[in-house]
Amino acid sequence: MKALFVTLLIFAAAFLIYDRFITPAGRRVVFENPPLELPKDSKTGRVHTTPAPRPPSDSPAPVHVPAGDGFIPPRIESLESLTKNWTVFPPTAFPRQVKLSKPVQLRMTGGSSTLPAGSTAFALGAQANVLIIAPTQTSQARGQTFVHDTDMPTQVRESYERWKKGRIEMAQAAWKKQQSTATAAATTMVSMPHAVEATGAPKRNGDGSYDLLLASMKSGQVTDIKPAKIQRWGTPQARTIDNKPTWAVSVFYETMAFCGPIDAEAQAHVREGRVVRWIYPGSGEPVP
């Protein structure tokens, strides 16, 4: 009996030696490697951990504008702000074909019908966030559905992103052109004595226009304002800008927006017989 116990003890010792020094890590039965101890802060005792990397964002990449040339991109309102949270759209946004995500009941003289979800229809207009729906542009049948129950938000957002990118690129191109042609443009403006009053204000024509401002547009100093799209001209206002006496003249015109033409106001700053800049009076940003 004693011999059997000694034999078992020898086998057990041999097994432990084999398990500890010969068996590969991860396969040991008794002497498995202890878990790694994470480092702790000596003061707080908290374990230091490395945060897991965040998944890539699904948001669209920002518009790339080369840095270092001094150009400052204009601030552009968000789509939600422009549409007042999808309750205001310019008339030019309609009619447009949309895809329905929910059924729409149509009413017409003598009966009614239903356009199923997934079908296409025409949005003829909007009342707040409700679209007026018709199966075709000429149909007399009418229905109503919420804006977000169609793909119109997707359509408008895609148009908005293209418009926003275009506005920034247009502003940058105009800025570069202004930097390279500012001296020549200034000389051209100063050589128009008939276009400026004795007070320094631009001289107004019989139709309300100003030759000085028109010459500025034609020279390329501003590209967003087209003379044919001008609705009316403002009256020169004496101001102090850049600590210098300046005449500010507003121009009201039609321009393209995120989903159609809109009315806009730009302001020319006239000083020493020339237009020194064009800005949007509400924000002070340069007009492209």
Task: Provide a descriptive summary of the structure in words.
- By secondary structure, the chain is of the alpha+beta class.
- Among the domains are: 79-150; 181-279, no CATH class.
- The chain has four helices and eleven strands; from the N terminus they run H-H-E-E-E-E-E-E-H-H-E-E-E-E-E.
- It has helices at 2-21, 79-82, 152-190, 211-219, and strands at 96-99, 104-108, 111-115, 120-127, 130-134, 143-146, 230-233, 237-241, 244-257, 260-271, 274-279.
- The strands form three sheets. Strands 7, 8, 9, 10 and 11 form a five-stranded antiparallel sheet that branches.
- Strand 9 (244-257) and strand 10 form a beta hairpin.
Number of helices: 4
Shape: flat
Question: How many individual β-strands?
Answer: 11
Mean pLDDT, to the nearest integer, reads 79
Low-confidence stretches: 32-67, 183-191
- SSE string: HHEEEEEEHHEEEEE
**Span between termini:** 103 Å
What class, by secondary structure content?
alpha+beta
Q: Let me know the largest β-sheet.
A: 5 strands, antiparallel
The share of residues in extended strands comes to 25-35%
Give the % helix.
25-40%
Report the C-alpha radius of gyration, rounded.
Answer: 36 Å
